[in-house]
């Protein structure tokens, strides 16, 4: 049994994956269930993130078996990309081995309404690379009558966390043995000041919820949005705009930029205390999930990032 709390669309993608895996198998089957898990009767596998992940890990006795160990014992290769330093820390142990499979990774990107760009006299194929480029784009969109040239669906994640990583700046530093927040350096102050000026000039609109910002962009009200890469299927399904995608802009006067944004999200955990045959079955399912054609289907249907080089190339 695999339990998760993903959206209805991603539940359907997960069920489709499990059904393909189950075809022709007589020894075991994967059953996908949507909803919260019970502490008293953990499923064989579960997909969790955020506070739910912390609750699962907050146990005196580990309630999981590392996916790297499960695959090693089954003599199956764990064909994932080398876990990057910006990956969700919970999924990686101190030796850099995967404790869980990060199946729900996403990172912020820029989505553009190509039709709105063309209407403003801009080249819809020339995406802004720097924040200065984007400001010039927003200026022309505003002059063309846009009431919402730019919006952000996750302001903290985009404006602080990922803009800092993109410019190789930390958002936390060690002071003695304590990790302390650190987001008042020159680049971060400069960037928030720029966003403040855009807000006052009505280039930037901030909405009460992530969902409202994305709905307004999908409806064509906003011309550009910084949002999770995992929002792509929802924008595609809305079908109301000609969609362009680009990396987040960067400040070209900052040394070392652009570097990397942060990939984080939900991970698949394998629970402890199972029979060897069950672990062998779960290893086979993980191996199936990592095959290139399944990586393509998972990325297309969920918007999550591919998990290995073969998935990227496919």
Blueprint (SSEs and pairs):
Layout: E1 2-4, H1 8-22, E2 32-34, E3 45-48, H2 50-57, H3 67-73, E4 101-106, E5 108-113, H4 114-119, H5 131-143, E6 150-152, H6 155-166, E7 172-175, E8 178-181, H7 186-200, E9 204-205, H8 210-218, E10 224-228, H9 232-238, E11 243-246, E12 264-270, H10 276-289, H11 292-302, H12 309-313
Parallel strand pairs: 1-2, 1-3, 6-9, 6-10
Antiparallel strand pairs: 3-12, 4-12, 5-10, 5-11, 7-8
Helix pairs in contact: 1-11, 3-10, 6-7
Structure explained in plain terms:
With 314 residues, the chain is an alpha/beta fold. The protein has helices at 8-22, 50-57, 67-73, 114-119, 131-143, 155-166, 186-200, 210-218, 232-238, 276-289, 292-302, 309-313; strands spanning 2-4, 32-34, 45-48, 101-106, 108-113, 150-152, 172-175, 178-181, 204-205, 224-228, 243-246, 264-270.
- As a whole number of angstroms, the C-alpha radius of gyration is 21 Å
User: Number of DSSP helices?
Assistant: 12
- Per the principal axes of the C-alpha atoms, what is the gross shape? globular
Helix content: 25-40%
Q: In this structure, how is the largest beta sheet organized?
A: 5 strands, mixed
Q: Name the helix and strand elements from N-terminus to C-terminus, one letter apiece.
A: EHEEHHEEHHEHEEHEHEHEEHHH
Strand content: 15-25%
Output the strand order for the largest sheet. 2-1-3-12-4
Give the termini separation. 29 Å
> What is the structural class?
alpha/beta
Low-confidence stretches: none
Whole-number mean pLDDT: 91
Secondary structure: number of strands: 12
């Amino acid at each position: 049994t695999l339990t998760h709390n993903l959206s209805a669309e991603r539940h359907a993608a997960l069920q489709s994956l499990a059904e393909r895996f189950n075809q022709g198998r007589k020894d075991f089957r994967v059953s996908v269930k949507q909803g919260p898990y019970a502490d008293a009767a953990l499923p064989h596998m579960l997909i969790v993130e955020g506070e739910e992940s912390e609750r699962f890990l907050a146990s005196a006795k580990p309630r999981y078996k590392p996916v790297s160990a499960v695959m090693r014992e089954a003599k199956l290769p764990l064909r994932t990309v080398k876990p990057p330093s910006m990956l969700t820390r919970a999924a990686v142990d101190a030796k850099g081995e995967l404790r869980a499979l990060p199946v729900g990774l996403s990172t912020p990107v820029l989505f553009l309404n190509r039709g709105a760009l063309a209407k403003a006299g801009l080249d819809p194929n020339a995406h802004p690379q720097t924040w200065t480029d984007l400001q010039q784009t927003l200026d022309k969109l505003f002059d063309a009558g846009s009431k919402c040239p730019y919006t952000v669906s996750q302001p903290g994640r985009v404006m602080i966390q990922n803009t800092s990583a993109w410019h190789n700046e930390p958002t936390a530093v060690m002071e003695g043995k304590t990790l302390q927040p650190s987001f008042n350096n020159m680049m971060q102050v400069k960037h928030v000041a720029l966003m403040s000026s855009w807000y006052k000039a009505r280039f930037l609109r901030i909405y009460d919820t992530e969902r409202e910002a994305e709905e307004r962009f999908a409806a064509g009200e906003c011309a550009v949005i910084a949002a999770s890469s995992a929002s792509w299927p929802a924008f595609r399904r809305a079908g109301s705009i000609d969609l362009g995608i680009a990396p987040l802009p960067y400040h070209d006067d900052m040394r070392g930029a652009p570097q990397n944004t942060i990939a984080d999200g939900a991970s698949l955990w394998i629970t402890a205390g199972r029979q060897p045959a069950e672990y062998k079955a779960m290893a086979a399912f993980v191996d199936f999930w990592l095959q290139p054609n399944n990586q393509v289907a998972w990325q297309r249907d969920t918007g999550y990032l591919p998990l290995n080089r073969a998935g990227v190339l496919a």
